[in-house]
Amino acid sequence: MKKRHVFSAEGLSLAREAVDAARFAGVADDDILLVANSEIEKHAIADKRKMADTDLMNATARGAGYGATTGLLAGLVAVAIPPLGITIAGAAALGLAGAMVGSLSSALLGATVPDPVRQQFEDEIAAGRILVVLDGDDTQLADAGAALARLGLRAMPYEAASAMS
After folding, report:
1. Rounded to an integer, what distance in angstroms lies between the CA atom of residue 115 and that of residue 6?
2. How much is the average pLDDT of 129-139?
3. Interaxial angle between packed helices 12-24 and 138-151, expressed in degrees from 0 to 180 and rounded to the nearest 10
4. Which residue in 156, 149, 153, 146 sits closest to 118, CA to CA?
5. Model's pTM, two decimal places?
6. Where do the DSSP E strands lie in 52-124?
């Protein structure tokens, strides 16, 4: 499973050097993202390097899991009550319906909540620093972290499971 680490760069040129250093250390190109204030992101960061502004993907995944679990449990309880006439297939259908409802409602809520990295480091972003976000396994992150430290980037106190690993 991939983990996510965050580093702070003083400027755009240093952040670009950090991207190259992370790639050289073995981090896949798609696993390197940059987070900055809206002016910097709009004018200086390529779209493929931008991180989503919201918690949409994480919230959708959580909602699907919780909704499916709730729907399946409700279906199994309904199977145990004979007058309702629910079959095992009906319980599975309730699980699927729960996953869909959970995904939709969580996605709607997640679209309004800032991404956890943006939330935690809003002061860094407001100060004009650029966050370099790396997703990788322990070895890749250790190698990349050492390379970024040599460049002068500051490791931020953040470690989380990568959203899409």
Report:
1. 13
2. 92
3. 140
4. 156
5. 0.65
6. none
